[in-house]
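Following the same procedure, backbone shapes were mapped to integers, as reproduced here:
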Amino acid sequence: MKSYCISGMKAREVLNNKGCPVLEVDVLSEDGRLGRASASFGISAGAHEVAVVRDGGPRYGGMGVLGPIRLVEERILPALRGLDCRDQRAVDRALLELDGTPDKSALGGNTICSVSLAVARLGALHREVPLYQYLGGALCDTLPLPLFNMINGGPYSAAPTDFQEFHAAPAGAKSFAEAMRMGVEVLQRLPEVIRKRHGAAAYRPGHLGGIGAPSADPREVLATLWAAVEEAGYADRFVLSLDCATSHLFDPESGRYNLNFGRFDTTEMIDYFTELVRDFPIFMLEDPLHEDDFEGFARLNAAVPTLICGDDLFVTSVRRLAGGAALNAAGAMIFKPNMIGSVSEALDAARYAVAHGMEVIPSQRAATSPDDPTAELGLAVGARLMKVGAPQTGERTQQQNNLIRIEESMGAAARLISGEEVRRWLVR
């Protein structure tokens, strides 16, 4: 028993893929084994996410994490020392009790998440199984269909495009590895399609690893992306999705959304999206309305066949999921452990979503690290879809390559959602 006990912690300040400091935590057990993790975070954060604790002041522009390092070594280690690293729920419960705030502002959601993930990795080492099997069981066999963030808009593009992410998903793929190849082949066609439709100056890198939106008009962006799909020869094997991230477009005083092509109320936004999914093969709309508009989400969900997905709406929280489930506000939840804090809370939210008929969709944050475990946590809960970013930046491709290896290790048991199952969200 003693060898499984938490004996030490070491925290440090490292950099993520955006050159921003983040907290990395090592958790050690009595036998010398080590679990390591850092918590990613979003460039744009929802209003209901847990608090992120940083230093303030001039150092790193206020983004330093020397304070969280002290919290780990001076407060968290004494509280967790001697606990069994294999008892994830007991560890997470101790972390939440130590923090004692509803938004985790005492320790910081970033601090709690880093420690919790590091403990989970240490527990998996002691069980001598991969993290996804440790948390999900030996029968995990579902790989997620990758949603590729091909075109970046909103705050992630120099073009005045309102919506944040434009995805293409290879719904006709028979394996994750094949899905990766198909996604890369579409991305290879996209620059030339943009140049032909919009001129050479319209081609520019996006902030999230994809390509910057070549037009302010979401319809034209979708048409451009679909043209790349067609040129790759996959018109019958791909579908599209949008992360609208409309909370940043919403004016609470007027109750309207300020888009570059007009000011819309909720009814007009619902009408707009209804037309959009009629005209394009869009199987999913993420955060199409303001993050507190559960009733508007429910109206849109009833109006279209499309999978309506909540990110800022749900923030990987059982409490907010319960409110959405009561209204039938959405058919999917974006799964981001750092939005809620601990591993146990994130898994509880995912299992609640599945129990209420929702899809669970893991997604890396914009600011992340190569060892981000979100994909493996998604595997643990049987996620059938995943936002994987663009297949061309190191931190993204490392995660994607890891999923290829996991699929290989599963052998014939590996499963991928079928194209027919995905296309049911295109028709009603």
